[in-house]
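Field log, afternoon session.

UNIT: design team B
ACTIVITY: writing a sequence onto a fixed backbone
BACKBONE:
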């Protein structure tokens, strides 16, 4: 999502000795052996800052790390997709510990490339209690009832609201378990008069929210997907999608969402400029969906902006999946650590994984950074605000990026062109929504079919192009 900003000690006595040269059996160790543990991660210095230094200080220096960086995989010279380049890197480097996203985590499980963790957990009676409820269930669901990886942190959002504005305009406060319908219904109860630069908005994101982005946000929270990558069929002409489109169109027409005409949002400048571009931070939006880093932004805005007007903040859980109000698709896993089935150092790899997912690590890391720890109870608040709403809903795996490498390179751009053209026709009352959805379905399918034929024709050709795995297309299996 555009504009999204993602923000990336007490030392204890050594309690055990980690070793290398370990056998593949759970729990077996060779004493006093120093070895190298090869770990795949974004960047070497970031790995040590986040994990490596703490592990060494806690467990001694029997393990040396060799970090295999994934930098550069998006812009490889062979025209490979990220997944293809990543697979080649794993095959070449043969790391012991894999850092995976939710998409390739599932793929590596299905390909038999990961070690099941349950035998280690059972043998050592490793404590999984206190981990974000539902997270282990979700990971096991991906693994066919078996656990193949653990993650120490996650991204999750919640519903932030300005209590002062709700009181001023006599609107009842948001409740726990808000859906997008609930959120936007409240937003429509705020006034729409005034200048774009100074008026109050019912809903304001950290960037101008266009109607297509609003549609995407709602659909993602409800688990809706517009392409089935198994059948390669576009699937937007449905009752569920029609309801989402209608909600976004009605909200846009009501003029309650922050989306100034011709305004592309913050494109550069000082931090003060950035804060002033955010309507919720500046007290001009009643409600928004945000991540924990917004709490830090609020603190910094107060400190850095002259004459900043503070307001009372409230946070509740949401957005929910309306089909299952106890759950959310908006909890995204950060680093899923897993053991390469080809590793000769499986026990040492497990010792690393259990540490970074354990209580000691959570206790230390809870004192810094804006990530949500999967180990609950250590980081209870940020800037005086309880983090309970971020843990209140059961996480569900969002299949948004599944099998993206199967899609044609230019599909998302073509899809968005079709989508925005048809949305404008509906907004101008030149087409009904039903008519627009049929056109989007038909033309997007034509574009997809054409792109797939070209992709197949170019397969294996050097420099054929790369997939943009950050394009934001919503896909399904």
């Amino acid at each position: 999502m555009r504009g999204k900003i993602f923000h990336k000690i007490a030392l204890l006595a050594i309690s055990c000795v980690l070793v290398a040269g370990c056998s593949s059996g759970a729990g077996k160790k060779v004493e006093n052996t120093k070895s190298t543990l090869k770990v795949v991660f974004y960047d070497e210095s970031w790995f040590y800052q986040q994990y490596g230094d703490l592990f060494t200080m806690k467990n001694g220096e029997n393990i040396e790390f060799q970090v295999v960086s994934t930098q550069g995989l998006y812009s490889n010279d062979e025209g490979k997709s990220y997944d293809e380049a990543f697979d080649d890197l794993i095959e070449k480097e043969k790391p012991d510990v894999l850092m995976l996203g939710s998409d390739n985590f599932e793929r590596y499980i299905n390909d038999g490339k990961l070690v099941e963790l349950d035998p280690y957990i059972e043998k050592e009676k490793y404590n999984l209690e206190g981990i974000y409820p539902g997270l282990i269930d979700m990971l096991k669901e991906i693994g066919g009832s078996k656990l193949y990886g653990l993650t120490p942190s996650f991204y999750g959002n919640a519903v932030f609201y300005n209590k002062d504005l709700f009181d001023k305009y006599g609107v009842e406060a948001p409740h726990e378990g808000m859906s997008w319908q609930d959120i936007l219904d409240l937003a429509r109860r705020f006034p729409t008069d005034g200048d774009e630069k100074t008026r109050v908005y019912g809903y304001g994101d950290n960037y101008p929210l266009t109607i297509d982005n609003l549609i995407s946000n709602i659909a993602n929270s409800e688990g809706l997907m517009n392409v089935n990558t198994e059948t390669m069929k576009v699937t937007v002409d449905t009752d569920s999608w029609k309801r989402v489109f209608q909600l976004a169109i009605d909200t846009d027409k009501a003029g309650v969402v922050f989306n100034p005409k011709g305004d592309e949002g913050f494109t550069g400048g000082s931090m003060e400029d950035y804060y002033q571009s955010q309507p919720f931070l500046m007290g001009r939006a009643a409600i928004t969906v945000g991540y924990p880093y917004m709490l830090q932004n609020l603190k910094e805005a107060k400190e850095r902006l002259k004459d900043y007007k503070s307001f009372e903040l409230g946070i509740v859980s949401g957005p929910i999946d309306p089909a299952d109000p106890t759950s959310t698709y908006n909890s995204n896993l950060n680093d899923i650590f897993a053991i390469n089935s080809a590793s000769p150092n499986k026990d040492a790899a497990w010792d690393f994984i259990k540490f970074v997912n354990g209580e000691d690590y959570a206790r230390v890391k809870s004192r810094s950074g804006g990530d949500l720890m999967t180990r609950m109870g250590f980081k209870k608040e940020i800037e005086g605000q309880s983090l309970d709403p971020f843990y209140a809903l059961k996480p569900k795996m969002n299949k948004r990026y599944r099998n993206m490498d199967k899609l044609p390179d230019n599909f998302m751009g073509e899809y968005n062109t079709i989508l925005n053209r048809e949305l404008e026709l509906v907004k101008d009352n030149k087409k009904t929504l039903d008519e627009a959805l049929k056109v989007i379905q038909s033309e997007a399918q034509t574009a997809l079919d054409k792109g797939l034929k070209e992709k197949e024709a170019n397969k294996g050709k050097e420099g054929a192009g790369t997939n943009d795995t950050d394009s934001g297309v919503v896909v399904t299996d």
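LOG NOTE: Residues 162-216+240-327 form one domain.
NEXT ACTIVITY: expression trials, pending approval
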